[in-house]
Specification:
alpha+beta; five-stranded mixed β-sheet; 253 residues; SH3 type barrels; 6 helices; single chain
C-alpha cells in the first residue's frame, strides 16, 4: 500500500499552478472555437431580443392605453345598458362618442354657449378646482384645431439660456415695445419647463426667432416626449409677410 501511494504522488516541482499561465496546460483548438461560437451566439441572441423589445414595447403600450381608454369611456354608459338588460361590449363607448359629438353641437349654439359660460364661471370660483380646470383648458385650447387668439400660434426656437444653446417654445402673441430708439416688435414665447403646463414667458425680438417647419402638434409631441420624437433635420420656414396684429404698449411718461 505504501508503494502505491508513492507511485501516485506528484512532485511539487511538477504541480500545476493555476495562477501561472506558463505552467497551465494549453487549451485545445476545439475548446477555443466552441467558446468563441458560444460568445457570438449569445451576443446575437441578446441583440435580437433587445430589437424585439424595442419594436414590441411601443406597440404594447399603445394597445394597453387604447384598451384602457376604451374600457374607461365604455364604463360611463355600460351600467345604464346593464340595467336595461343589454350586454354588448363597445356600445357604451359608441354612446360616449355620440354624447361628446352632441355636446359639441349644443355648445356651438347660443343657448349651449351661455350655459357653458355659467358653468365655467361657477368652476372658476372654486378654490382648488379652478387651477386644475384652467391648466387643462389651456392645454386643450393649445392643441385644438381652431386657432383662436388663445391658442399657440407657431413653434419657435430661441437662443436660451446661453449663447449656443436653444430652447423650444410656442409663440402666443406679439407686442410693440416703444422706446427712445424706436418701435421694436417683440413676440411672447412660451417655453415649457415641466412637460407643457408649466413654463416661462420670454419677450424676444421677432427677427431673432427661428420658426421651424413644425406644426403645433409636432412641437407638443417633441416637448412631451422629452425630445425623443425630434426629427433628424429641421429647416426654418420662409419669412412670409403678415399683417401686424400686435398690441401696442403705451409708454409711461
Amino acid at each position: 500500500m505504501a508503494e502505491e501511494k508513492e507511485s501516485t504522488s506528484v512532485p511539487l516541482s511538477q504541480a500545476v499552478d493555476p495562477e501561472d499561465p506558463a505552467k497551465t496546460p494549453p487549451t485545445s483548438p476545439n475548446s477555443s472555437t466552441r467558446k468563441a461560437c458560444c460568445a457570438v451566439l449569445q451576443s446575437w441572441v441578446s441583440r435580437k431580443f433587445m430589437t424585439g423589445c424595442v419594436v414590441l414595447f411601443p406597440v404594447a403600450v399603445t394597445f394597453f392605453i387604447t384598451w384602457w381608454f376604451i374600457q374607461f369611456v365604455d364604463g360611463f354608459f355600460s351600467p345604464l345598458y346593464a340595467k336595461l338588460g343589454v350586454d354588448i361590449f363597445g356600445l357604451g363607448f359608441l354612446t360616449s362618442l355620440l354624447f361628446v359629438f352632441l355636446v359639441g353641437i349644443f355648445v356651438s349654439s347660443w343657448l349651449g354657449a351661455t350655459i357653458f359660460w355659467l358653468g365655467e364661471w361657477f368652476i372658476k370660483r372654486m378654490p382648488l378646482v379652478r387651477h386644475i380646470y384652467s391648466a387643462s383648458k389651456q392645454i386643450s385650447t393649445a392643441i385644438s384645431s381652431d386657432q383662436n387668439a388663445a391658442a399657440f400660434k407657431e413653434v419657435a426656437i430661441i437662443r436660451h439660456p446661453r449663447v449656443g444653446e436653444y430652447a423650444f417654445g410656442f409663440i402666443t402673441s406679439s407686442v410693440i415695445l416703444q422706446s427712445d430708439k424706436g418701435d421694436e416688435e417683440l413676440c411672447s414665447v412660451y417655453v415649457p419647463t415641466n412637460h407643457l403646463y408649466i413654463g416661462d414667458i420670454f419677450l424676444v425680438n421677432s427677427e431673432e426667432i427661428i420658426r421651424p417647419n413644425l406644426s403645433i402638434r409636432e412641437g407638443i409631441e417633441i416637448i412631451v416626449s422629452g425630445g425623443m420624437t425630434m426629427p433628424q433635420m429641421i429647416a426654418p420656414l420662409e419669412q412670409i409677410p403678415r399683417k401686424n396684429q400686435s398690441i401696442r404698449l403705451n409708454r409711461i411718461p
